[in-house]
Structures are given as structure tokens and as C-alpha cells.
């Protein structure tokens, strides 16, 4: 293997092969064959998936092929259930978190489970985080908003403070993007909506004062390269200084917070990756693939492989060391 072998992939998803009936409007899985299924939301088709969503043997073979030593395995956001009653959302989180442990168990430590929580209720979210982490989960994935409440809402801040107190890493994934006739073409909700959602939520954490309220050792990472944030940081910085009457709601200018969060590398183009590294620093970017979904990156880490501007040390940061720091570990299995 080459210098990219041993990569830690911080952004992948799972879907169980099935789960108990959650109700008429809840997600369920229509198995069309042993290796092919459709995620259903009520009577509507949401996404076609394959056995690589639940079969550890397939995942491990793909990891070996791509030189991935370990993989963070997070929920698929459609199952967050933030709009459900808290009791129902807690039940769903418990079911999926327990099934995630079963999916990851055959990996021998190479498949690292991240849980989900009922984020609409901070007390219930903190309780489920504790239960899941005590059961074997290494971190938590949350959506980037709960209805109209962004990541600077009091309940989310309470949850982030609790995650920091437990030393639990947080992975933020965009979800529930706005819908309109203009966004229903060309997968625009995923191609433009997801980056915009992530940009907005990083901005909310900065201007909403979240980084001023949570401990500096909170480990939080945003999916898809942080959306469009890095490209437009200069515009945000300019507005903070020139329209301080509306924008300067954080203790410091936006650029002062870029070392408080990480992003993954799923940007597909070395030019975009260079913008991330130049803006956030090589210590704040980690390889992520969005495996096993079609808009993900295969082979994993290809954008890093093609980025000739990265030094050997920066490659080691992006592929391994930053992820180890995010996960709070010194090392992970090296075979693979």
C-alpha cells in the first residue's frame, strides 16, 4: 500500500437490514432482494440502498480495497425523527443505536459506531447519548437543525455542553433541506441545499455565540467540507466588521473560531481541498467519504491523493492524525 494506507474515514453511514414497525408514517425498509432494498417513508420511496449499508463483510472488503484502516459509521439522517414526539424519537434512537452496534461488532474495532439522539428534547438527548456511549458508541451524529431551531438554540447548546463534558465527538450532518419546485430538479436539494445548510449552521454556531459558551475541548466536525463556509468566510468577516450593528453578536470575529471545529474532505476537487486547508488549517480537515452512497467518494481519500499541494505531514494529518484526535484515541487497528 502507498502513503494513504491506514486512512481513517470519519464520514460513512449505515442502515440496518430491518427493524421493528415504527408506525404508519415512519421509515421502513422494503427488501427487494438479499442485496438490494428501498428506504421507505410511509408509502414514499426515499432512497435505494445495497447490502453495503448493513453487511460488515462487504464494508471491510471495500475498506481493504481503499486502504482504510477504520471507518466511523453514523446513522442515515432520514431516521433522526426530530419532528416526532420525544418518546417516539427516543424509541427510534434506541432501536437504531442498538442495531448499529450489531452491524459494527464484526469489524473488530475497525467499524466505529456513532449514535443518534432525540435532539428535539435536550434532556432525552443527553440521556440517550449516555446510554449509547456506555453501550459502546464512540460518538454521536446530529442533524444541523431541529425544525426552525439552529445549532445555537438553548437545547442544542445544552446537549453540546454535555457531549463535551463526556468527551464525546460530535459529527454534524445536513438534513431536511428546504423544498421547492426550483430545488426538485437535478438533485438540487442535495447538490446545493446540503452545502448551504452546513454553511448556515456553522455561521449560527459562531454568530450565535455557541463557541463562546461551550468548552474549547468540544470536538465537533461538519460534513461535506463544511459546505460553502470556507469559500465565503471573507464575506462573513467583512459583514461582521462593517455591519456590526447586526452581525457582531459573537465575542470575536468569525475568523477567530476556525480552529474550534473540523470538516471532512468530501469536496472532490483538490482546488476546493486547498481552499479548506488554506482557510481552516491542515489540522482541521479529515478524510471522509460519505460511503456507501452514490454521491460519496471512491476510492476513499482520492481528493487527498490528487492534492499535490499537500506535504507528507499534512497528508498524515488529513488521513490519520486529525481523526485520531477527533475520536480521542492514540491509535486504531493498523491492518487493512
TrEMBL record:
Enzyme Commission number, as recorded: 4.1.1.45
Q: What class of enzyme is it?
A: lyase
Pfam families for this protein: Amidohydro_2
- In which domain of life is the source organism classified? Bacteria
Entry's Gene Ontology cellular component terms: cytosol
Q: Where is the Amidohydrolase-related domain?
A: 8-328
Q: Which GO terms describe its biological process?
A: secondary metabolic process
GO: which molecular function terms?
aminocarboxymuconate-semialdehyde decarboxylase activity; hydrolase activity; metal ion binding
Give, as in the UniProt entry, the pathway in which the protein acts: Secondary metabolite metabolism; quinolate metabolism
Which keywords describe this protein according to UniProt?
A: Decarboxylase, Lyase, Metal-binding, Zinc
Q: Which family does it belong to?
A: Belongs to the metallo-dependent hydrolases superfamily. ACMSD family.
- Outline the subunit composition: Monomer.
Mind telling me what this protein is named? 2-amino-3-carboxymuconate-6-semialdehyde decarboxylase
The record lists the organism as Pseudonocardia ammonioxydans
Amino acid at each position: 500500500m502507498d502513503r494513504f494506507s491506514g486512512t481513517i474515514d470519519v464520514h460513512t453511514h449505515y442502515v440496518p437490514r430491518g427493524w421493528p414497525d415504527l408506525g404508519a408514517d415512519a421509515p421502513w425498509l422494503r427488501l427487494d432482494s438479499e442485496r438490494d432494498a428501498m428506504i421507505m417513508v410511509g408509502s414514499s420511496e426515499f432512497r435505494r440502498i445495497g447490502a453495503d449499508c448493513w453487511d460488515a463483510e462487504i464494508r471491510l472488503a471495500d475498506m481493504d480495497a481503499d486502504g482504510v484502516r477504520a471507518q466511523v459509521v453514523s446513522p442515515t439522517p432520514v431516521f433522526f425523527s426530530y419532528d416526532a414526539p420525544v418518546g417516539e424519537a427516543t424509541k427510534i434512537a434506541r432501536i437504531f443505536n442498538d442495531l448499529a452496534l450489531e452491524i459494527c461488532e464484526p469489524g473488530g474495532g475497525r467499524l466505529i459506531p456513532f449514535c443518534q439522539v432525540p435532539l428535539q428534547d435536550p434532556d432525552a438527548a443527553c440521556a440517550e447519548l449516555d446510554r449509547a456511549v456506555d453501550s459502546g458508541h464512540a460518538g454521536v451524529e446530529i442533524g444541523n437543525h431541529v425544525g426552525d431551531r439552529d445549532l445555537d438554540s438553548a437545547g442544542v447548546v445544552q446537549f453540546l455542553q454535555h457531549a463535551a463534558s463526556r468527551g464525546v465527538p460530535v459529527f454534524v450532518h445536513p438534513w431536511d433541506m428546504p423544498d421547492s419546485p426550483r430545488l426538485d430538479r437535478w438533485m438540487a436539494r442535495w447538490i446545493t441545499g446540503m452545502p448551504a445548510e452546513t454553511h448556515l449552521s456553522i455561521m449560527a454556531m459562531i454568530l450565535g455565540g455557541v463557541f463562546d459558551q461551550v468548552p474549547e475541548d468540544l470536538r465537533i466536525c461538519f460534513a461535506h467540507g463544511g459546505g460553502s463556509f470556507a469559500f465565503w468566510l471573507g464575506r462573513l468577516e467583512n459583514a461582521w466588521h462593517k455591519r456590526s450593528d447586526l452581525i457582531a453578536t459573537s465575542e470575536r470575529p468569525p475568523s477567530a473560531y476556525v480552529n474550534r471545529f473540523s470538516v471532512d474532505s468530501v469536496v472532490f476537487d483538490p482546488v476546493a481541498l486547498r481552499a479548506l486547508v488554506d482557510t481552516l488549517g491542515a489540522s482541521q480537515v479529515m478524510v471522509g467519504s460519505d460511503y456507501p452512497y452514490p454521491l460519496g467518494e471512491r476510492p476513499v481519500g482520492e481528493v487527498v491523493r490528487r492534492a499535490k499541494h499537500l506535504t507528507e505531514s499534512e497528508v498524515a494529518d488529513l488521513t490519520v492524525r486529525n481523526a485520531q484526535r477527533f475520536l480521542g484515541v492514540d491509535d486504531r487497528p493498523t491492518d487493512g
